[in-house]
């Protein structure tokens, strides 16, 4: 597809008129119309501003084959993942995990992943399956993967969780206070400082970030993507280092470092 076609489709997807786009750019609507008819192409500075207005990468506008590939919001069926986790939990006698699966499914009922129709439970189940696929079959870790967002997103309290004290502590460590522009740096710094001191929490947080990076291209605004990249580069090397200091998590640390850094590099190139 041409640049003009991309601009028109992105504008219409966001229910914007040519006049509204033109006003945001400080130009005439006739200029926007001429871009969409492929009579002219926007200058680099206007291309960057268009990307900000449409909340996409510059390449999404400039690439003339923008829709060559089909994309998916979910790879696995969340109910199949739930069955897999429960079956594994029964086989390995993971008592907290068995309780946590049903608790998390009920707590997140009706919630969706950002800007998608994917049930939110897909995310914690993905973390649990990620851990199991790396050979980590520890009750507290799998249960905490399943419950790591129920305090932040579901209004639950630590005392309500149907799990042991170690699992509750992992969930507490993984729960971040709400932030704003004034206190964000202070709260986030303190949050990671606690996590880095607990190897299991560091492992879960790395899996959490790995999964979130895979969805941020359609789930977050450009500003949030920039912030996510910056935060990841600042705090995650210490988490990986903590994991590497524990021999049984060396393989997981290697895989997660590779996955996280590879995705960061891809986003940087596309941004």
Keywords:
elongated; 15 helices; 434 Repressor (Amino-terminal Domain); mainly alpha; Hypothetical protein af1432; 271 residues; 2 domains; 68% helix
The low-confidence runs, each spanning 5 or more residues with pLDDT under 50, are none
Biggest beta sheet summary = none
CATH class of the largest domain: Mainly Alpha
Q: Give the helices and strands as they follow along the chain.
A: HHHHHHHHHHHHHHH
Structural class: mainly alpha
Let me know the number of strands.
Answer: 0
Q: Helix share of residues?
A: 55-70%
Number of folding domains?
2
CATH fold-level label of the largest domain: Hypothetical protein af1432
Description:
It is elongated and about 65 Å long. It has helices at 3-13, 18-25, 29-36, 44-54, 58-62, 78-91, 95-107, 122-133, 139-147, 150-154, 165-174, 184-195, 199-219, 222-244, 250-270. Helix 2 crosses helix 3 (29-36). Helices cover 68% and strands 0% of the residues. It has 271 residues and is mainly alpha-helical. It has two domains: 3-62, Orthogonal Bundle (434 Repressor (Amino-terminal Domain)), CATH 1.10.260.40; 78-270, Hypothetical protein af1432. The two termini are 20 Å apart.
Provide a compact summary of the structure.
The chain has 15 helices and no strands. The chain is mainly α and 271 residues long.
Task: Give the helices and strands, then pairings.
Elements: H1 3-13, H2 18-25, H3 29-36, H4 44-54, H5 58-62, H6 78-91, H7 95-107, H8 122-133, H9 139-147, H10 150-154, H11 165-174, H12 184-195, H13 199-219, H14 222-244, H15 250-270
